[in-house]
Amino acid sequence: MSEPAPSRQITVPVSVRRVLPDLLTAVAPVVGERLIGAWLYGSAATGSFERGVSDIDVLIGVAAVEGELPLDSGELDAAHARVLRAHPAFRDRLDLTYAPAAALAGEPGAPLLALSPGEPLHAGRVTPA
Predict the structure, then answer these.
(1) 56-71 residue pLDDT tens
(2) What is the pTM of this model?
(3) What is the pLDDT of residue 44?
(4) What CATH number is attached to the domain comprising 19?
């Protein structure tokens, strides 16, 4: 029987650790009790983050209502703006996706809201792989 591969400990970069609490504090009042969870992924979570280059990727799970995300895009824009004012180094390097449980499970057609570098908050749908 083969031995399991050794695990390696990943340290989230300090700059990312400073942004995440402010991000969650800003979006929590908008999402409210519909918040399922928030997950850091991408280079900051895998140990390949490059200071000044890499973005912060966060998936925010939100309970859907009748198949839709009941989020106010204006309130989310304001929340994101507060975070980016506090952390201007990430002005074009914050990549957020708001997704319901159905999207987290990969259900085609599930709604998404995304804030991507260089783009405003926009709606989309999960597409089949």
Answers:
(1) 999 999 998 888 888 9
(2) 0.89
(3) 96
(4) 3.30.460
Closest to 19 in 3D by CA, of 91, 74, 68, 100: 91
pLDDT at 123: 92
Residue 63 falls inside a structural domain: yes
Q: What is the 3-state secondary structure (H, E, C) of 33-91?
A: HHEEEEEEECHHHHCCCCCCCCCEEEEEEECCECCECCCCHHHHHHHHHHHHHHCHHHC
- Edge to edge, what strands does the sheet with 35-41 contain? 35-41, 56-62, 94-99, 111-115, 122-125
| Segments in the chain below pLDDT 50 | none
